[in-house]
Amino acid sequence: MLRLRVPALVLVFGMLAAACTSDDQPPPTGPTGSNAQITAIMASVDLYAGDPQRVAIGLITPDNHFVSFGSVNLTFSAIGSAAQPQSPQPGPTATATFVPTFGTPERSQVPTVTNPNEGRGVYEAEDVVFDTPGFWVADVTVDVEGLGQQTAQASFAVQERPQLPAPGDRAMKTDSLTVDSKGVPPAAIDSRAGNTGKIPDPELHEWTIAQAIDQHRPALVVFATPVFCVSRFCGPVVNMVEDLARRYDDRAVFIHVEIWKDFQNKVLNDAPQQWLQMPNGDLTEPWLFLIGADGTIADRWSSMWSEQEVADELQALPPMKA
Fold first, then answer.
1. Quick check: 277 and 2 in contact, CB under 8 A?
2. Residues of the chain with CATH 2.60.40
3. Can you say whether the dihedral through the CA atoms of 282, 240, 174, 54 is positive or negative?
4. Which of 187, 192, 271 has its CA nearest to residue 239?
5. Are 216 and 164 spatial neighbours (Cβ–Cβ below 8 Å)?
6. Where are the beta strands (DSSP E) in 159-252?
7. Whether 222 contacts 252, CB under 8 Å
8. Fewest Cβ atoms closer than 10 Å to its Cβ: which of 10, 115, 238, 280?
């Protein structure tokens, strides 16, 4: 049975916990220390062993505020598997920097407690390598303005190999929906067209993924449902891709893939099922994939991502031929 799950943070303000299979559910964890006033929640999806990856964590307070801005320190430890749990084995350490939702103004240089409309996002560490699959914990240490030093812990699963398309894989030649697709309602192309019947960002719906690959065009592909997204991340990330499309239309084609074919009847579009369906039947979103001109996936991002980071990778591409 196919179920839609949103990777990221489960909260009143729309953040959902990362989906795991029933056999891969890590043990529950939470705040640590006698003065703990924050909770850490893993926002990354499809982590796997052996390759450097981004790891994103959200921080919240008991009254459902966020910890935003600045940076935090992360220490990772392996705790074995469900069949063979073990005492924590030291793993990598990292500094994670705050990545806000698109359009959030920077109002602090240090971690600060915020309302959702003041600062909403995740702390992201880059190039983290997990040497073994199994269950892991991330210990977070952060000096929060007004709260002092805080510690919290999030548990998560690391797979032996990626369950979704990953860097180095050949991209699937998918006939995603476009403004030229026949016999589908506009909302199946972009959920924001549901009320007006007009696609709000036609420049993101001109190419199929298959066309981009066949014509050897780099492609930046965002899978998201701006209207029906539970996490509140999908609308901002699509807006971010629109902004990037205006700035880097000479480097790549830009594609938005809507998740729902028919939201009311819970029918999913074919493209997100092909790309995002996990082995246990769940489908997670939002996701962003950068496909190279050779049809290979060059990079991917889940849940949230830095516009500047994506822009840097687009800028590094050679200009496309007309």
1. yes
2. 3-158
3. negative
4. 192
5. no
6. 219-223
7. no
8. 115
> What would the two tokens of residue 202 be?
């036609």
Model confidence pLDDT, tens digit, residues 53-73: 999 999 999 888 899 999 999
Predicted pLDDT at 269: 95
Asked whether the beta carbons of 260 and 276 are under 8 A apart, the reply is no
- Give the whole-angstrom CA distance, residue 90 versus residue 124: 20
Task: Report the predicted TM-score, pTM, of the whole model to 2 decimal places.
Answer: 0.88
Strand order in the sheet with 219-223: 253-257, 219-223, 287-291, 297-302
What is the token pair recorded at 210?
A: 């298959």
Sequence-distant (6+) residues with CB within 8 A of 76 are 91, 92, 93, 94, 128, 130, 136, 137, 138, 139
> How far apart, in whole angstroms, are the C-alpha atoms of residue 234 and residue 263?
15
pLDDT tens digit sequence for 259-284: 999 988 889 999 999 999 998 888 88
Residue 215 to residue 243: CA distance in whole angstroms: 24
- 189 three-class SS: helix
Copy the structure tokens of residue 101.
Answer: 């939702």
Distances (CA, A) of 110 to 72, 149, 239, 308, 314: 9, 12, 26, 20, 29
In the chain, what percentage of residues exceed pLDDT 70? 86
Residue 170 per-residue DSSP state = B
Q: Which residue has the tokens 């929060």?
A: 144
Q: Please state, as a whole number, how many other Cβ atoms lie within 10 Å of the Cβ of residue 265.
A: 7
Report the length, in residues, of the chain: 322
What CATH architecture does domain 186-315 belong to? 3-Layer(aba) Sandwich (3.40)
Fold that domain 3-158 belongs to in CATH: Immunoglobulin-like (2.60.40)
Contact yes or no for 176/255 (Cβ under 8 A): yes
The pair phi, psi for residue 250, each rounded to 5°, is -90, -5
